[in-house]
């Protein structure tokens, strides 16, 4: 590598970044902070959604996007000359590593540029991409196999893959992907670091506070939580924190179809970081309805605030939620409602789970992540250098 004093220059490429929020953005921010804290140079290369209205720090670089538009409150941007722009930015920073966070659009072109420049490429497999086939303007029967083939080809083209949970690592192995693979969970953002353990002391007559932090989209299965709320009585209140295209539909389903009251159920849209932290710290239980998340970083965030989790099984939660230790795994909305009532009536059990949840979250601090990530970077670089040496033909004597 070309780095001085063993410090690396790392280009992170992502289609999603601010003004979007969510697990991928949180993961990128936490990764950037962990690497910068150790003295590495990091640049986030992403799309320019807002023109000159982004309030970016200097480590964020935006690809020029001549076409920008908004649809259903979501920002979209279409870039031109991606290879040219990416090559200019990556060469300009003398990158040692190209770390890609999506296999499409900028990610695909980022891999092309990394190969062109002979730079090791790493890919974090954030999402079960075929589960998002409903966003592709094709019938699901055609979209899912197409997405699967494209992602498989991309995974076979990079030098190393990061799986954020054991379930994702197993899925990739089952697909016979032979690329170097490591299971490295994303770290917590700095505001969740080293929060002291605390058990909630709430009077018996006070409602138990239930929280979920989730994007309001179909694949996140949010209606599951609305059904849970409808099964609970006045001893409980639920807060749903997030944003997304299904927001109005979810409100209609909750308040009109299920006849829930705003006292039972509250929606909070895009709170700032301090407000979000207050919601986490004030909650008694954290609920997680998604079946498609590969890690569910919000689970670790809740646990960092000493909050046990009740979740349905899925690839992300299976790697962090230990049944009857730091939370509970349930199959149906009725089972989740019963689990909530059980813990409400057994505060000692909930306190013990709170402590185990907090202990689990300590595994998501940046030090462990950074050590594993840098080790993988160097392995990938050594592997690529070895491969290039093997490809150089011997001169005839």
Would you summarize the structure shown here?
The protein has 397 residues and is α/β, with parallel strands linked by helices.
Describe the overall structure.
- The chain is α/β, with parallel strands linked by helices and 397 residues long.
- It folds into 2 domains: 4-187 and 365-391, Rossmann fold, CATH 3.40.50; 190-363, Glycogen Phosphorylase B (Rossmann fold).
- The chain contains 12 helices and 15 strands.
- The chain has helices spanning 23-37, 82-92, 106-117, 140-157, 166-174, 223-231, 247-257, 273-282, 297-304, 333-344, 347-361, 366-391; strands spanning 9-13, 41-47, 60-63, 67-71, 74-78, 97-100, 121-124, 160-163, 180-183, 208-213, 236-242, 265-269, 285-288, 309-311, 327-329.
- The strands form 3 sheets. A 7-stranded parallel sheet has the order 3-2-1-6-7-8-9, sandwiched between helices. A 6-stranded parallel sheet has the order 12-11-10-13-14-15, sandwiched between helices.
- Helix 5 (166-174) links the parallel strand 8 and strand 9 (180-183).
- 42% of the residues are buried.
Write the CATH fold name of the largest domain.
Rossmann fold
Distance between the termini: 31 Å
Discrete helix count: 12
What's the arrangement of strands in the largest beta sheet?
3-2-1-6-7-8-9
Q: Which CATH C-level class of the largest domain is it?
A: Alpha Beta
Strand content: 15-25%
| Helix content bin | 25-40%
């Amino acid at each position: 590598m070309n780095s001085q004093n063993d410090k690396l220059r790392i280009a992170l490429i992502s289609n999603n970044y601010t003004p979007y929020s969510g697990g991928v953005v949180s993961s990128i921010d936490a990764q950037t902070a962990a690497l910068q804290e150790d003295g590495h140079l990091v640049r986030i290369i992403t799309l320019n959604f807002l023109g000159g209205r982004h309030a970016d720090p200097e480590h964020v670089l935006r690809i020029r996007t001549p076409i920008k538009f908004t649809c259903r409150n979501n920002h979209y941007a279409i870039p031109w000359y991606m290879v040219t722009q990416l090559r200019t930015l990556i060469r300009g920073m003398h990158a040692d590593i190209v770390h890609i966070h999506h296999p499409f659009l900028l990610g695909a072109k980022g891999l092309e540029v990394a190969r062109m420049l002979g730079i090791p490429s790493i890919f974090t497999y954030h999402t079960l991409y075929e589960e998002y086939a409903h966003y592709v303007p094709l019938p699901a029967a055609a979209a899912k196999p197409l997405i699967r083939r494209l992602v498989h080809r991309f995974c076979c083209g990079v030098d190393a893959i990061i799986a954020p949970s054991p379930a994702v690592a197993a899925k990739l192995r089952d697909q016979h992907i032979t690329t170097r693979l490591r299971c490295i969970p994303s770290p917590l953002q700095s505001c969740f670091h080293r929060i002291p353990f605390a058990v909630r002391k709430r009077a018996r007559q006070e409602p138990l506070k239930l929280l979920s932090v989730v994007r309001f989209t179909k694949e996140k299965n949010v209606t599951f939580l609305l059904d849970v709320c409808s099964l609970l009585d006045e001893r409980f209140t639920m807060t749903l924190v997030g944003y997304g295209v299904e927001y109005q539909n979810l409100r209609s389903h909750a308040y009109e179809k299920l006849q829930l009251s705003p006292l039972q159920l509250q929606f909070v849209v895009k709170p700032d970081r301090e407000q979000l932290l207050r919601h986490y710290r004030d909650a008694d239980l954290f609920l997680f309805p998604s079946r498609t998340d590969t890690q569910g970083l919000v689970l670790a965030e809740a646990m960092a605030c000493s909050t046990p989790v009740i979740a349905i099984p899925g690839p992300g939660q299976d790697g962090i939620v230990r049944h009857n230790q730091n939370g509970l795994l349930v199959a149906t909305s009725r089972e989740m409602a019963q689990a909530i009532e059980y813990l409400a009536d057994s505060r000692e059990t909930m306190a013990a789970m709170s402590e185990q949840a907090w202990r689990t979250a300590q595994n998501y601090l940046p030090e462990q992540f950074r050590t594993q990530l840098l080790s993988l970077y160097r392995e990938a670089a050594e592997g690529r250098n070895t491969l290039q040496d093997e490809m150089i033909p011997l001169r005839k004597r």
